[in-house]
């Protein structure tokens, strides 16, 4: 059995959520090279944001041309990984650039910034390892986000009473940590919070789902035609039809191996025969040191787990909250957003809203469930964000 291949594919599948967002193809094209029409009618001011440890983040404060007075501002908080201010994932896929332009055209200022260790769009990374691998990587991310919020509040174009946070993936937990106890981070209570792709599991739970559970889920949904929890040879053959070659190869290595059929009955019980094989291939029982996983990532997962998830943090915040999640998100499944919304209701928050989207993946774009492709947030998602912000302006 090609266990090394299975492990490599499974770890690569940890695309988003608690581990770095996958990039289909990196690009070094700077923001200034993007078509001028994308930013038509929007002022772009370069900013430098001082942070601790000798790092200063560069980025942009953008706002509508002709805007007068101090504006409400939306601070964008990235998903996990070393992201530039646009959260560039592939040529033409810059999720935060897309969000920023939409929100600017709705009359708001937006503050985007390069995460610690990132010096330019691409992303381009610093050559200083101290900025790329801090001792407490997630804690540092929260501290850096707080520095950005403080910077926004004193910007001459910004109304300090109207600083909103918009987090994606990891950024939903960062936003939750900040609004639960703003004083601890030296910031004013934010005017509102928008969360896209809400974190709803511990690191161990999330990594199990992303590395093992999603594979089992696909077998149950797309292979097990008769729904009996096991796969016949015919179901295996039919299930492989139409899958991308690399994905089909991964499944074939597991499903056609005699070792997987532990009881030798000619059928593969998904949860009791396939699960142990996939689990062993990714080395899940050595969590957070999975097969092929870097020490840097293992350290990040450990640090991330020390902080509370949005469902625990948001009830401590009595301001307005908008939760957005794709129903086919396999990195931060929709259940996390549903639970967080219920927690807000139980805490007595009177201004919270949950919107879920059929056929929408973690990047808030329409995409196949088990083979998601990079894309910018859909127009319906952007319209919902703008409508909610306008109502809370």
Indicate the proportion of strand residues.
15-25%
Q: Give the averaged pLDDT, no decimals.
A: 91
- The count of β-strands is 14
Distance between the termini: 58 Å
Into which percent range does the helicity of residues fall? 25-40%
Pattern of helices and strands: HEEEEEHEEEHHEHEHEHHEHHHEHEH
Uncertain segments are 1-33
Gyration radius (Cα, Å) is 22 Å
Helix segment tally: 13
Quaternary organization: single chain
Sheet of most strands: 8 strands, mixed
Shape: elongated
What structural class do you assign from the helix and strand content? alpha/beta
Strand order of the largest sheet: 1-2-6-3-9-10-13-14
Which SSEs are present, and which pair or pack?
Layout: H1 3-12, E1 42-50, E2 56-64, E3 71-77, E4 88-90, E5 93-94, H2 95-105, E6 109-113, E7 118-120, E8 124-125, H3 129-132, H4 137-153, E9 158-168, H5 170-180, E10 192-196, H6 203-223, E11 230-231, H7 233-240, H8 245-255, E12 268-269, H9 270-282, H10 295-304, H11 310-313, E13 321-326, H12 335-346, E14 352-357, H13 379-391
Parallel strand pairs: 3-6, 3-9, 9-10, 10-13, 13-14
Antiparallel strand pairs: 1-2, 2-6, 4-5, 7-8, 11-12
Helix pairs in contact: 1-8, 4-5, 6-9
Question: What would you note in describing this structure?
Answer:
The chain contains 13 helices and 14 strands. The N terminus is likely disordered. It is of the alpha/beta class. The strands form 4 sheets. Strands 1-2-6-3-9-10-13-14 form an 8-stranded mixed beta sheet, sandwiched between helices. It has a two-stranded antiparallel ribbon with strand order 4-5. The radius of gyration is 22 Å and the shape is elongated. The longest helix has 21 residues.
């Amino acid at each position: 059995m090609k266990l090394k291949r299975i492990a490599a594919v499974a770890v690569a599948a940890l695309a988003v959520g608690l581990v770095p967002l996958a990039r289909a193809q990196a690009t070094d094209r700077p923001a200034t090279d993007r078509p001028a029409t994308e930013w038509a009618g929007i002022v772009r001011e370069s900013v430098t944001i001082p942070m601790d440890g000798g790092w200063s983040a560069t980025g942009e404060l953008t706002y509508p041309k002709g805007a007068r007075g101090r504006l409400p501002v939306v601070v964008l908080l990235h998903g996990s990984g070393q992201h530039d201010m646009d959260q560039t994932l592939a040529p033409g896929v810059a999720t935060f650039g897309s969000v920023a332009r939409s929100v600017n055209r709705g009359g708001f200022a937006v503050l985007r910034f390069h995460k610690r260790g990132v010096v330019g769009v691409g992303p381009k990374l610093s050559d200083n390892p101290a900025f790329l691998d801090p001792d407490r990587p997630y804690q540092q991310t929260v501290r850096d986000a707080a520095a950005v919020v403080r910077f926004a509040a004193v910007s001459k174009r910004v109304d300090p009473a109207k600083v909103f946070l918009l987090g994606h993936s990891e950024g939903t937990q960062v936003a939750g940590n900040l609004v639960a106890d703003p004083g601890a981070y030296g910031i004013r209570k934010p005017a509102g919070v928008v969360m896209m792709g809400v974190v709803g599991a511990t690191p161990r739970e999330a990594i199990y789902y992303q590395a093992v559970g999603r594979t089992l889920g696909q077998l149950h949904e797309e292979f097990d035609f008769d729904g009996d929890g096991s796969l016949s040879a015919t179901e295996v053959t039919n299930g492989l039809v139409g899958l991308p070659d690399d994905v089909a190869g991964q499944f074939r290595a597991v499903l056609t191996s005699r070792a997987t059929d532990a009881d030798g009955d000619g059928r593969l019980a998904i949860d009791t025969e396939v699960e142990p094989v996939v689990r062993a291939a990714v080395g899940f029982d050595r969590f957070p040191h999975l097969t092929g996983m870097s020490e840097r990532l293992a350290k990040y997962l450990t640090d991330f787990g020390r902080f509370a998830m949005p469902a625990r943090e948001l009830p401590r915040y009595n301001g307005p909250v908008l939760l957005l999640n794709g129903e086919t998100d396999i990195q931060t499944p929709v259940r996390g957003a549903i639970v967080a919304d219920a927690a807000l209701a139980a805490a007595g928050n009177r201004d919270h809203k949950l919107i879920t989207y059929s056929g929408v993946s973690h990047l808030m774009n329409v995409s196949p469930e088990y083979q998601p492709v990079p894309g910018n947030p859909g127009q319906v998602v952007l319209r919902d964000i703008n409508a909610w912000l306008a109502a809370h302006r």
